[in-house]
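Troubleshooting entry. Yesterday's outputs looked truncated, so today I'm pasting the complete records for two proteins to confirm everything comes through intact. If either block looks cut off, that's the bug. Protein one:
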Amino acid sequence: MNAGPRFARLEDWLEWQQSLHPQAIDLGLARVSRVLGRTGWRDPAQPVITVGGTNGKGSCVALLEALLRAGGYRVGAFTSPHLIDYRERIRLDGALVSQASLVAAFERIADALDGESLTFFEFNTLAALLVFETWAPDAIVLEVGLGGRLDAVNVVDADVAVVVSFALDHMEWLGSDLESIGREKAGIFRRSRPAICGVPQPPGSVQQVADETGARLLLRGRDFDAVEHVDGRWDYHDERGDLLGLPAPALEGVAQKGNAATALAALRQLADRLPLDRAAIESGLTAVRLPGRFQRLPGAGGIEWVLDVAHNPAAAATLASNLALHSVRGRTLAVCGMLDDKDVAGVLAALRDRVDRWFAATTEGPRGLADVALATRARAVGIEMTAAGSVADAMRRAAHEARAGDRIVVFGSFHTVGPALACV
């Protein structure tokens, strides 16, 4: 093998990786498997939980991480994309991976390319696996980037596979209907190993994949469930027994008790290797944090900010439900920034009745959508949206028009919420 490039700065490595492969998305495991094999990486000895799904993946990973850490386990977690710092994607016991560890992993991958190339995400995935190999945590939690069957994360055989939800998104890659999308997402299932499904009625293709692979499919509502109390607490039920009166997870939103039940179902399948007592479960539920998912922050002048990465119609519908649940006495203003390849009309339709005033923001990057173009698409579905420049400019414009008692919702993409976090 020929030695790859050497860069001292992380930014130079990331710039090189973005130009390495001719396509930003190139699903398939062949190249990834060959390069990973040449690094000398070995399959993990510790339990691996792989988390897929259209929405809720990040919340489920955060819950798994918090619950395991509360039980005293050292956890390696891989998620994407990041909001502010690339190192958010690889966490070691809650801390961002060090630049030195990342660079060492990048060098090892670059030396193993042997004339092949990887996409930016594939490079990122292999770096996470190499970092975890060196660090040797007690458990590894991996978030699927896109789909499942052909996603780079699927190069690892998960001890427990989780699919949190199914909705129409990335249809150019995964198929135009839920049956096709379900088959792709269920591609992370493994023979004789548990596969946790976070919805009661998944597409029929999910059960078909489980039957074909010999995975043990566990459905929320059939094999495990969450039952909410009026006081906010909830009960968890599965074949192993009940956990009654659990505290609500510290993540806000109507979907989070279901996400917590899905995470618990996965961990209880690993109880012989990673046992958790009730005290750890309660501690993990109350300690979990995840920026950018219905994140409510106080602002100057009696204004509330709400940050949410919702970027497809299903996630936007959940955001609308959360806004209805947490009403304010004033108006709701929205700063919306989306990527060009997203279902803008579907997202806006889900939130149409929850927003009084709209501002369009430009999202950066090759898939970004300019504020004027977004406002034009909004107008085509009957929503008047003011083109307001960058995310920071649009937030300033909204804040100038807001009054005490109003809230400003910033949503539509990680590329929108990331810059917003730097402003509030």
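Protein two, checking that the full record survives here as well:
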Amino acid sequence: MNASRLEGPPRQPEYSLVRILAEAGTVQDAAGRLLERIAGEFGWAYGALWLADGGDALLRMAEDWSDDDPALHEFRRLSKHVTFNPGLGLPGRVWASGEPAWIVDVVEDPNFPRAEIARRAGLHGAVGLPVLGPTGMLGVMEFLTRDLRPMEPAQLDLLRTLGRQVGQYVARASAEERLRAEENVSASIVRAALDCVITMDHEGRVLDFNPAAEETFGYRREEAVGRTVAELVIPPALREAHRLALGRYLQTGQPTILNQRLAMTAVRADGATLPVELTVTRIEDSEPPMFAGFLRDISARVRSEEEVTALLAREHEARVRAEEAERSRARAEWSRAVERALGRGTEANGRAAGGPHSPKEKEP
């Protein structure tokens, strides 16, 4: 590389990094530009950001960058598919120590598993920087060059500072991404739920009305939001009890129906009633309180239970009739058997008395 690249103080790369971080929406958005900017400032040919995978306790590549040299393609392809345990390779040793590591020549380094592929790519000097967040190590930035590069303390100090800046950004952006992902997942689950999900505020007014609720109760979401749950889905005879229960909870904090599974009757937009199963929960950390109601139309279940009950009743009646018929048949058979027995007894008595038909009787 051009040695003049390293002469004199660096051109304040912190400012350009701050601009990149301010403009980026996600870690992925920022990583490639960060690596290119830092590598270009200090004359590195390749850069990679490795982030810790909390589930596996491994470092995995989040993003990498290189100049346009085709010789680096194989090194980049291999690097995308490797992971590092603490202490293994340049990323692993920085992760384990929490301190930067400088290698004059990776080809000769005993703890650089990609040494052979680096040699073929013409890479030699390397530096690894800890990416430190408020709670500790988040990952490692790695840079390599084609030169045998002795350690430069001033450059290393500046790189350490840049690593801390990147760490602060990664921590913040990762937390925001997780929050957005959780919110998106929650919203997707609510939208896709087969059960009706109705969210209401402390005044009982609808905040959200998912598609299943639209289909079940016959209101569009736009019609439902802002109206009270009582007027939308609770039969007139039960509305006052609903309002009293909500008011009592707000005053005392003592729940009456929260987190219980209840069977009740609900009403549709057209006035038709239907049986539902209801569970109401308070949304955590909401002040003033917000509640989510999960309702399931159990009409099919009720019809099925009614059909089963009717079937069992018919089966019982049929069994009673069959048992009565069997008893009648048994009584009839018993009566016939008794009659036959009595008839045989009468005939036998006649023969014993010497009647004209007795086989033992002789003519005079």
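Both blocks look complete. Sanity check on protein two: The chain has a mean pLDDT of 81.
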